[in-house]
Design a protein that fits this description.
The chain contains 11 helices and 14 strands. It has a 6-stranded mixed sheet, with helices on both faces. The protein is about 35% helix and about 30% strand. α5 packs parallel to α6. By secondary structure, it is α/β, with parallel strands linked by helices. The longest helix is centred in the middle third of the chain and has 14 residues, at about 165-175. It starts with a strand and ends with a helix. The chain has helices at about 40-45, 70-75, 90-100, 110-120, 135-145, 165-175, 190-195, 215-225, 235-245, 275-285, 300-310, and strands at about 1-10, 15-25, 30-35, 55-60, 65, 75-80, 150-155, 180-185, 200-205, 205-215, 225-230, 250-260, 260-270, 290-295. The protein is elongated. It has 2 domains: about 1-220, Rossmann fold (3-Layer(aba) Sandwich), CATH 3.40.50; about 225-295, Alpha-Beta Plaits, CATH 3.30.70.1340. The protein binds adenosine-5'-diphosphate and magnesium ion (MG). Adenosine-5'-diphosphate (ADP) binds near residues 11, 16, 36, 40 and 41.
Amino acid sequence: MLKVENLVKKYGRATALSGISFHVNKGEVIGFLGPNGAGKSTTMNIITGYISSNVGNVYIDGTEILENPELAKKKIGYLPEQPPLYMEMTVLEYLNFVYELRGCDLPRKAHLEDVCKVVKISDVRDRVIRNLSKGYKQRVGIASALIGNPPLIILDEPTIGLDPKQIIEVRNLIRALGQSHTVILSTHILSEAQAVCDRMIIIDHGKIIADGKTEEINQFIKDNRRYKVFVSGAQSDVLPVLKKVSGVIACEPLAERDGDAVAYAIEAQKGIDIRKPMFHALAEKGYPIMGLEALGASLEDIFISLIDREDA
Ligand code: ADP
Ligand code: MG
């Protein structure tokens, strides 16, 4: 469905992308995951033909985006990070405008009605876009991406700026779209990709650092669990006890304190739950645990461990 080969993009002297390659198969829902500035929007703008890359190729169903942009673009529905909505138009006027712009040849009335139904905006179709809530505006943006019924839908951070209820609605909508479309959505929120996507492509500093099924990434996160534990007692006494707990690979004191308790970051061996042995070891020496948090589910942690793994 989509083949991206060795994209390199420079803005002046700054390199935004340094060799991005991946494939997307028909029917997949892909999370393009990375922190701010990673290069997500740049990649999406290149895939959709909005900007060109310095090096590399993008094939949509075999068609190179810059060689035959008209044909390639017909196969993509794109919701950019800042959707270009015309605030003074009504929803239906705007969708008609996009219909013309895309040179759509599906039966107009029925098609626009269908699209409104899918994204649940039929009840606001005669309202001026400016007066809609942010959640509705975003759905109008998604509706415009669906015009012409393109098989590949690309959504750049579609839930950013929405409230929690709207986020759930938009995520449900994306999941529903995934039933009949190939979808790529970018996000900087790991849990969003976990909730919506079959596969994640993780990007950082313009490079792909992981590409795998969501279950594989979840397993990786689970296996590479880290903890933050607060233990009362002198650091010089507690640290050696923690380091000796079976299954602990690394332990280091943090700057955080809670009364007389010191915080330690602990890295556990893959697949080993160190909580019980840690409790017993500390209890035996008389050092109470004042708090315990599982780390390792944040995007930062997965990046750090993936980058470490790559370096190793
Ligand atoms: P993301 O969408 O993952 O947040 P972007 O693709 O927007 O990342 O940006 C990648 C890098 O390229 C960032 O360092 C950003 O500052 C830079 N960048 C993006 N657009 C431009 C531009 N038009 N001019 C100069 N630098 C840019
Ligand atoms: Mg972006």
